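User: I would dearly like some help making sense of a protein record. This is the protein in question:
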Amino acid sequence: MKRLNWIVILVSLCAASVAGAQQTADTDAEIGTTPAMPADTTEGATGTTPALPADAPGPMANASFAWNEAMTACPDPAVGSAASAWAWRPDADERALYALDLNGPGTTFDFLADFEGTSIIIRVRDAETNESLAVIKTNSSNTEVDGEVFAYRLSRFLAFDGLVAPAVPVDLGGGALEKLLDLISHHSYDDPNKERNRDRVERQVRQALRDGTTFHGAMKPWLGAFMFHSGLGHRESLAEQPVMRRLRARSDQPNDELVTLEQFTRLYSPAGTHRGVIPMWQLAMDMSNMMLMDALTGQNDRFAGANIHFIAVEGERTEEGERRSLPIYNLGEVRLLALDNGATLSSSNGSGLADIQGNIVRGTRVERFSEAAVQRVLAMGRRALGAGCDSAPFADEHDAMWSYFGLSGRVTERTDNYLGNTIEYVQGIVDRYGDAAFLRPVHGDSDEAIGD
């Protein structure tokens, strides 16, 4: 499977939940704390930009003894802490975001014109070409921007390639704050909840300018050729999809039959029918990975209706025909995309664990996982919690591991809980079903018809 291209194509960010009644009226679906940068950094427009050698190891390429120890062994007082292994290395996509000229004249800020709920999301454009480059998400009562960074880093660590868009912590200061204040102070919303969030952001920006401090957010690249899928985005409808049967341990393994994902919308740009195809095994893997990630991050809003998306692998859509007097867009081969990961870290458990257990809607239960991802999750449990070990974890390594994922302070008490509860469930499934608990795609011809 080709790695997703996160390069810009003109399309609005679909990051918000859509109220059920509003969405049902206009859409239908078918299935056919900021971590410190490395010491070797150089000053950039956003503050600090990583200055790393071209061959700098990523989170899964570090072959040092400490990293091997962290991935394979229990904490051992005779060996010592492996805290030094947990050092995040930004990848090329993250470095591209850090390099954007947020402070200077190279970029402009505006608001999204599309429907994005009550969140305050800032679009970053190239000042010369007006090309959309990135979005900056802000904290609100239902958005935790550190959760966006956590989800991306966790997805990289677990090798969930392409499932989550790159996200970096950003602390706006100087010229970026001035541009943001100029934008936000000259705008208002009719929605009282959204206006309340806008006013809060304005007050925080003004305070940061007075104090000479910064405004914290999360920045993500502008994405193209994607659309939400309401059939996958509601628990009740997801439970009826053939893919969920393939995620039960006693069922057949998923094969490579093509599944068509289709969504009609008048709410999002471009309005029309969006259609793409995905092998059943890839759909099963993406859904399993997403729900495992949601359990680990304390996700509370995945199944609000418009928070599961599909995105074109080639990053393009072509117009082919018409339906309901609106265009049909062919996205070609697609993958699932967990676009909005801000509704995380805010509760003691989150609904993600209940969803993967099938405790809210029975049919969403997942009993099959990526074996490599499970081994990584168990490694996290050993090093941070001492799960399954005779010796206690090292406190400095516990903190270093969560810092690796962009987290620190009291929130790690919650992530400890998410991790421990998820391990208990997944380990129980593996103990019960053995190898059948792991996704082993079946490739080759099949006579089975799978959805359209």
User: Anything to note?
Assistant: Residues 411-433 form the longest helix (23 residues). Residues 69-221 form one domain.
